[in-house]
TrEMBL record:
<dbReference type="InterPro" id="IPR050573">
    <property type="entry name" value="SDH/FRD_Iron-Sulfur"/>
</dbReference>
<keyword id="KW-0560">Oxidoreductase</keyword>
<dbReference type="GO" id="GO:0009055">
    <property type="term" value="F:electron transfer activity"/>
</dbReference>
<dbReference type="InterPro" id="IPR009051">
    <property type="entry name" value="Helical_ferredxn"/>
</dbReference>
<feature type="domain" description="4Fe-4S ferredoxin-type">
    <location>
        <begin position="144"/>
        <end position="164"/>
    </location>
</feature>
<dbReference type="GO" id="GO:0051539">
    <property type="term" value="F:4 iron, 4 sulfur cluster binding"/>
</dbReference>
<keyword id="KW-0408">Iron</keyword>
<comment type="similarity">
    <text>Belongs to the succinate dehydrogenase/fumarate reductase iron-sulfur protein family.</text>
</comment>
<dbReference type="Pfam" id="PF13183">
    <property type="entry name" value="Fer4_8"/>
</dbReference>
<dbReference type="InterPro" id="IPR004489">
    <property type="entry name" value="Succ_DH/fum_Rdtase_Fe-S"/>
</dbReference>
<keyword id="KW-0411">Iron-sulfur</keyword>
<dbReference type="InterPro" id="IPR017896">
    <property type="entry name" value="4Fe4S_Fe-S-bd"/>
</dbReference>
<dbReference type="GO" id="GO:0022904">
    <property type="term" value="P:respiratory electron transport chain"/>
</dbReference>
<dbReference type="GO" id="GO:0006099">
    <property type="term" value="P:tricarboxylic acid cycle"/>
</dbReference>
<keyword id="KW-0004">4Fe-4S</keyword>
<dbReference type="GO" id="GO:0008177">
    <property type="term" value="F:succinate dehydrogenase (quinone) activity"/>
</dbReference>
<keyword id="KW-0001">2Fe-2S</keyword>
Length: 248
């Protein structure tokens, strides 16, 4: 018998079902990641005590820390299961679903709230038509330098999970959406909807609901300067408020 890794998984059969813990022993391999362990359980759904169970339900897609689908709480920290290497994790390994989103089953949660928020802040560059529009407007290199890291956001939910103001009792849209407002307002074409985006984050659940805990920037897997974005949007919303006040 080779070396085994003990894995504790928090499971839930449906959104209404009670949660329970199950433990598995996974054969150790060098460079093993959490997704590979879950795939092993899929093929051989047997508990550490030898009792048969059902395969663990989880979500994944790109397997290279780009899509954000496999985000879960690993040893108490929100991160992607595809890039979480077993050799770098404390044993036993504990896997839990994100707590700030509705659990669909086991480790699979519904992050719809984050995507609906992107619709609210118009997190895209709006263009007219599908015909060839020619080369797009150029951005200054110094703008590109700070804007590119913001574009790496994959809506994974890590920042929301770590934020004390993002929960079922709050309407707060979260750090990711606010950062995307900064990104698209900096784009020469995206700036046409600048005021609409600022109005969106000045509304209920917007930037004023941020408690400045700064947990988000600590857990972001892409090292996005979320607190810088929040600070910058804070200044822009103040300017927008004065602008609206002078017109009224």
């Amino acid at each position: 018998m080779g070396e085994k890794i003990r894995v504790r998984v928090k499971r839930q059969d449906s959104p209404e079902a009670p949660a329970r813990w199950e433990e598995f022993d996974i054969p150790y391999r060098k460079n093993l990641n959490v997704i590979a362990m879950l795939m092993h359980i899929q093929k051989n759904p047997v508990l550490a005590n030898g009792q048969k169970t059902s395969p663990v339900v989880y979500e994944c897609n790109c397997l290279e820390e780009v899509c954000g689908a496999c985000t879960m709480v690993i040893n108490g920290k929100p991160q992607q299961a595809c890039s979480a290497l077993v050799d770098q994790l404390q044993k036993p390994i504990t896997l839990e679903p994100l707590s700030k989103f509705p659990v669909l089953r086991d480790l699979h949660v519904d992050r719809k709230k984050m995507f609906e928020t992107l619709k609210q802040v118009k997190g895209w560059v709006q263009i007219d038509g599908t015909y060839d529009l020619g080369p797009g407007p150029r951005m200054a290199p110094e703008v590109q330098e700070w804007a590119y890291p913001l574009s790496r956001c994959m809506t994974c939910g890590c920042c929301a999970e770590a934020c004390p103001n993002y929960n079922e009792k709050s309407h707060f849209m979260g750090p990711a959406a606010i950062s995307q407002v900064r990104l698209f307002n900096a784009h020469p074409t995206g700036a046409m909807q600048k005021n609409e985006r600022l109005d969106a984050i000045m509304d209920k659940g917007g930037i004023s609901d941020c408690g400045n805990a700064q947990n988000c920037v600590q857990v972001c897997p892409k090292e996005i300067p979320l607190t810088t974005s929040i600070g910058d949007m804070g200044r822009e919303t103040v300017k927008r408020w004065f602008s609206r006040a002078l017109r009224s």
